[in-house]
Structure formats: C-alpha cells, structure tokens
Design a protein that fits this description.
Layout lengths: L2 E2 L2 E2 L2 H13 L7 E4 L2 E4 H4 L3 E3 L18 E2 L1 E4 L5 H8 L5 E5 L8 H4 L4 H6 L7 E5 L5 E5 L12 E2 L4 H7 L3 H15 L7 H12 L5 E4 L6 E4 L1 E2 L22 E5 L2 E8 L6 E8 L5 E6 L6 E4 L2 H11 L2 E2 L1 H5 L7 E2 L5 E3 L3 E8 L11 E4 L4 E7 L5 H5 L7 H5 L10 H10 L10 E8 L6 E4 L10 E3 L6 H19 L4 H4 L3 H13 L12 H11 L1 E2 L25 E3 L14 H20 L6
Parallel strand pairs: 5-15, 6-18, 7-8, 7-19, 8-15, 12-13, 19-30, 20-21
Antiparallel strand pairs: 1-2, 3-4, 9-10, 11-14, 13-24, 16-17, 17-18, 22-27, 23-26, 23-29, 24-25, 25-26, 27-28
Protein name: Protein HOTHEAD isoform X2
Length: 601
C-alpha cells in the first residue's frame, strides 16, 4: 500500500488523491507509483528527453569523427517498440524515436474514466491522431510513447496456439515473453455489473464453457486481463522501459521520423541512419553504428510502418514517383493487404445509472465472431455536452447513418440537437460484435510527403461475402444477449416509457436492436451501414512480400519491421498482448542471434 504523508493511505483516499492530481493536469513533475513509493516520472525514466535535446556528436565516439552512433535505432515507441527497446538495451546502445509525447502527465491517457475523451481530442498534442478511411469510418492512430496501449480499451488476452504456430514463432520463447509483460503491467479486473451480465448472458445463450479468468484464447466465455489497475489507472507499454538498461538507452519524444537514410552504392541498399524532426520543427540525423549486426527497426504500427517505408523510397515505384520520392527499392506489396476487423454494436438503454466499464468479458464463438461489451460512457455530463469520438454516444448515435454520410457537419448537428434530449436516453451500454478474421482487404497510399499527414487508408469493409455473413451471425447473437433474462433488470420499464425512449432514440440516431431481425437482407444492410472500428487494423508489411520470416526487409540490408503491420490476422480477441510480446520476443531473438549464449536471455 502506498504511503502518503507518512501514513498508510486507504485505497479510496489514494484513488481520490490520484484523481485530483491528474485532473489538475500537472505536467511536471508528475508522480508515478513504483515499488510501493511515489516519485516523479523523470526519476524513473531519466533516459526520456525531448527531441530538441538531441546531439549527434559524442566525445566518447570510437568512429574517429566524433559522431555518436547507435547499435539499434527503433522508429516508433509504441506497443512493440517499447518492449523491444528495453530488451535490446540490455546489451547494446539503442535510440528509440517517438513522434508523440509521454503518457505519464496526460490525464486522458492515465484513467479509464477519460478513455472516450482521449479519442475525441483532435489537437496536435493529442495522444490519438484522428483519421477517416476512404470507407467513411472514423478511426484513430496512437501518437504517444506506449502507442496503442495508451488509448485502447485495456483488454489483455493472448493469441491461441494455432496463431503462434502459423506465425512460425518459437512457442517456448513466446511462453516466456508473455509473462515478462504480464508481471509488469497486467491486472485481474474487478468485474463490473454490466460485464457480469454479459458474461452470464453469453453462457445462457450457449457460448460455453465458462473458462474463468484466463489470458488464454479458448472457445467459450471468459474474463481476460486488463492494463487498468484497481484504481482505474492505465499501465502502458511505456512502463516496460523501466526494465531497460538506462545507460544504453536514449528515448526521444516528439521526434517525428521523416525518412530512413540509405547508402545505395552497393548491390543492395543499406540503412545508415534516420532523419527526424523535433518539437520545434528542426531537423536532425541519427546514425547507425557500422558494427556488424546493427539495424534500424521500424515499429510504427500498421499505418506508420508502411508509411515510413514509402516515404523512405521503399514501395510501389509508381506510387513513389508520383510524389517525386527517389526509389530505393521497388516493392509493389508495401502498404497492400491492409485489414481492419469490422465492429458493429448495439446500444442497450437502461432504466438506471450504469457503472463505467471497458472490455473485461469476451465470448469466443465458433461462428468466427467475438462478443465484448462496454458501459456507462454515454451518460456522463461531459459526454452529453461534447463530441468524444467513436467510443461514446455521439458517433454511435450516428452509426445508423451510412458511413460515407458521416460528416463532421452531421456530428455537429447532432451535438446541437442532443442538448434537448433527456439525460436518461444516454444511460446504458454497448454490446460489441467483432469479426475475428476478416477476408476483406485494403491498402494505404501516399497523399503527401509530409510524415505528419495521414496517408490515404482503405479497408474495404465487408467486400468479402464471408465477412458479411459472419456479421449477420454476430448481430443475431447480440440480439439474443440483449433479450436474455440477465439484462431484464437493466431494461425493465413500462411500455409507454420504452416507446418514448425508442422514439427519441430514432430521432437522435441511437443505434438500437434492428426491428426486422428475421430479414437477413435487413441485417446485412445494418452491418454495412453501422460498421465502425475497434482499432485492430493490421497488415501492410507482410511476411514473404515485404519482409522475411526474421522480419528483415526484403532487398535491403540492416532494416527490419517489427509490429502489427506484419500480421495477416489480428491475434486473439484483442491484439495488444501479442504485439507487446512480439517486441520482447524479437528483442531476445535478435540478442541471441548476435551474442549466442552470451546474451544471457
């Protein structure tokens, strides 16, 4: 238990103190808890600095020209990049470049209650970067040290054995790498009432057996782990940097990589450094060591990694030439094969206040869909007054509008009109249905040469008929859950009140259970018209097309890609566990390749 003012602080008092500290949004110093005591985050992570502090000169350089070099330069301090950097720094010098800031001083990142607000923040300093796919679906990219673990719903669950085998990973090392993550930042959730109702309903309708609390990916219903602790505070991949060797790691925040630099004088291009921009707009260059085995590793995520490769001259020749990017390597597969797991939700209005909760329970069905739930994020005063993005009432109220008609003007009109809507309308929760392994594929393409700009992103949701069939199956399951006896306590009210709520819901575009559920064609249209994202997009740098099985970029020396852009399928029900594991796993693999037994890992 933490000690405040020399006395043991009860959990409630501690929670209040934490809430006050972050609500006032003190940015420096911000206290974090480590080993049972409170300390400024700068003391725990002394190697994290602003990008403008970078200097490429070094008095200790052994290369004869006073230029500081690194054994590894990692582009992207996200879900994979942080554990990767922490692991490689045990033996070698590492520079980790992150385009966003730190998560520790950001109240919207730190507490579950602010989950929806973080996603709605579209300011340049936001931890999430909004984008709109060409499909018309709102989406977000992480822009913060710790990556997607800073803005997601926190659910932690491993990939199944068949996924591990298909990926060609060493199962022994995988089973050593997951616990390395879990011991540091993963918790057992306190199951919220809404989550208990979903759990019991899943079992009632036959999504069985009940597998209890487990990280494992097993058919049936289970409770998974979470990166939110018992106080609702988020623990991110950035905290894994505490396991690094601080003498061998430099982490630069607000360091936006513009491109990777290559020496093209040999038979194959060789990565030699990266050019990045600091928070003031000034440009810097970081150099890779000439020692054998040194590499640049791109870990910028499913959007960022193919984007960086193309900006650096690796990608489809025609795509690069249209923006006058010098072609380093013509590879038509970069940015191709993108996929996003479609999400469709049903909003279930209730007759009482519902405790806020994010994903804790999941139903893993044999129909190829996953069932999850959230609650309480539409009913808060700030959610009713403001636009808080895809995770709150506003956009889900708009979800009955076809995607390409979901404009900012439509949201703005809804925000204005909803001020007159009764507060009771927003009480309730969502039941989520996600397609497990979509077959629909899309791509990303360049729009500008500015690394700050999003590329053009297309996912082609439901372009494959099997995905649409699975969505229909999933919505039928969701309807059964909403009608189960375990939800009657939440939704029980007289017919007049229910009709009034339903009528107001239609006027406000609230997404409720479709009325004609026996009409397959109607459900298919419902799936298409209400599709949103759960941010599990992946692909763009696939094995055998862009990278080799060891994640080295094909046709180029000293460059790898290690993150979700390499995935053919999203692992488990929610991918963050496996992406973090992958960072640790590949860090250990690389050290063992380079050092053999001397790696000691």
């Amino acid at each position: 238990m933490a000690v405040v003012g020399g006395a043991a602080a009860p959990p409630l008092i501690l929670k209040l103190l934490l809430s006050l500290l972050l609500c006032f949004n003190y940015s420096s110093p911000t206290l974090i808890q480590a080993a049972g005591k409170w300390e400024p985050w700068e003391d725990r992570y002394p190697f994290i600095r602003e990008a403008s502090s970078f200097s490429s000169s070094s008095s200790s350089s052994n290369n004869g020209n006073n230029i500081k070099t690194y054994d590894y330069i990692i582009v992207g301090g996200g879900t994979a990049g942080c554990p990767l950097a922490a692991t490689l720094s045990q033996k070698f010098s590492v520079l980790l470049l992150e385009r966003g800031g730190v998560p520790f001083a950001n109240a919207n990142v730190s507490f579950m209650q602010n989950f929806h607000i973080a996603l709605a923040d579209t300011s340049p300093s936001s931890a999430s970067q909004y984008f709109l796919s060409t499909d018309g679906v709102f989406n977000s990219r992480a822009r913060v040290l710790g990556g997607g673990t800073c803005i997601n719903a926190g659910f932690y669950t491993r990939a199944g054995p068949s996924y591990i085998k298909k990926a060609g990973w060493d199962s022994k090392l995988v089973n050593e790498s997951y616990p390395w993550i879990e011991k540091q930042i993963v918790h057992k959730p306190n199951l919220a009432p809404w989550q208990r109702a979903v759990r019991d309903s899943l079992l009632e309708i036959g999504i069985s057996p009940f597998n209890g609390f487990t990280y494992d990916h097993i058919y049936g219903t289970k409770v998974g782990g979470t990166i939110f602790d018992r106080f609702g505070r988020r623990h991110t991949a950035a905290e894994l940097l505490a396991s690094a060797n601080p003498k061998k790691l430099d982490v630069l925040v607000h360091a936006t990589v513009q491109k990777i630099d290559f020496d093209t004088s040999g038979k194959k291009p060789r990565a030699v450094g990266v050019i990045f921009k600091d928070e003031n707009g000034n440009q810097h260059k970081a150099f890779l060591s000439k020692r054998k085995g040194s590499e640049i590793i791109v870990s910028s995520g499913a959007i960022g990694s193919p984007h960086i490769l193309m900006l650096s001259g690796i990608g489809p020749k025609a795509e690069l030439e249209k923006l006058n990017i010098p072609v380093v390597l013509d590879n038509k597969f970069v940015g191709q094969g993108m996929s996003d797991n479609p999400l469709n939700t049903i909003f279930v209005p209730t007759n009482r206040h519902v405790e806020q909760s994010l994903i804790q329970t999941v139903g893993i069905t044999k129909e190829g869909v996953y069932i999850e739930a959230s609650s309480g994020f539409g009913q808060s005063g700030d959610s009713i007054r403001c636009n808080h993005g895809v995770a709150s009432a506003e956009v889900r109220q708009l979800s009955t509008i076809p995607p390409k008609q979901r404009t900012f003007e439509a949201i703005e009109a809804y925000r204005r009109s909803k001020k007159n809507i009764p507060h009771e309308l927003f009480r309730g929760g969502f039941i989520l249905e996600k397609i497990a392994t979509p077959l629909s594929r899309g791509n990303i393409s360049l729009v500008t040469t500015n690394a700050d700009d999003n590329p053009s992103i297309t996912f082609n949701y439901f372009s494959h008929p099997r995905d649409l069939k699975r969505c229909v199956d999933g919505i039928r399951i969701v309807e059964k859950i909403a009608k189960s006896k375990h939800f009657t306590n939440y939704t029980q009210c007289d017919k007049e009140t229910l009709d009034k709520l339903l009528n107001m819901s239609v006027q406000a575009n609230v997404n409720l259970i479709p009325k004609h559920t026996n009409n397959t064609q109607s459900l298919e249209q419902f799936c298409k018209d209400t599709v949103i994202t759960i941010w599990h997009y992946h692909g763009g740098c696939h094995v055998g097309k862009v990278i080799a099985p060891d994640y080295r970029v094909l046709g180029v020396h000293r460059l790898r890609v290690i993150d979700g852009s390499t995935f053919e399928e999203s692992p488990g029900t929610n991918p963050q566990a496996t992406v973090m594991m992958m960072g640790r796993y590949m860090g250990v693999k690389i050290l063992r390749e380079r050092l053999g037994r001397a790696a000691g890992l």
